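[Meeting: bench + compute handoff]

Bench side (C.D.) handed over the final construct sequence. Compute side (W.E.) agreed to return the predicted structure before the next meeting so the bench team could plan truncations. Sequence as handed over:
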Amino acid sequence: MIAAIVYNSKTGSCKRYAEELSRALHLPCYPVKKYPTRSDGELIYVGWVMAGSVPGYARLAKKARVAAVCAVGMAPVTEESVRSGREKNQIPDDVAFFCLQGGFDIHKLPLPMRLIMKRITRQIAGKLAAKKAEAPLSAQEEATYRMAATGRGEPASWDVSEIVAWVLKRYESEGVLRRP
């Protein structure tokens, strides 16, 4: 049974997704540093993406049962991002893995990360500008382009319906989804 949503947020997107899931599933959510490590159930972990890695997942998985990982980054979600995210983070097959597009604010990042991201966002904006010159961008690509070009922005949507549907399918049919 899912007992809580635990998140690790850098610029606020993971927190927002965790709160959206908390409301939709009627489950408590905690920042990873404040999560009471004793738990009688499984967790959904919502973490930000850095170069394909989801910081905090491996450490949490050592001390708690993680049923699902939600990786939040500024890039558009693709089949490849889901496949490579699962692989890079060594997420077992019995743990659900979701990629979500989050917002971005370069000014909320620590200085070393901000300097790295300034270079990376210029590259991303350039690639998407070239693609945009040839064909329209998808909504997620357009959101990523705006974030990369301006240093901040929102995702195409804050949709958690896929995760909610997974939880409901997995647990409500068994009558074990705990609701406060």
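W.E. noted at the follow-up: The helical segments are 13-25, 57-63, 79-88, 111-134, 139-150, 161-171. C.D. will use this when planning the next construct.
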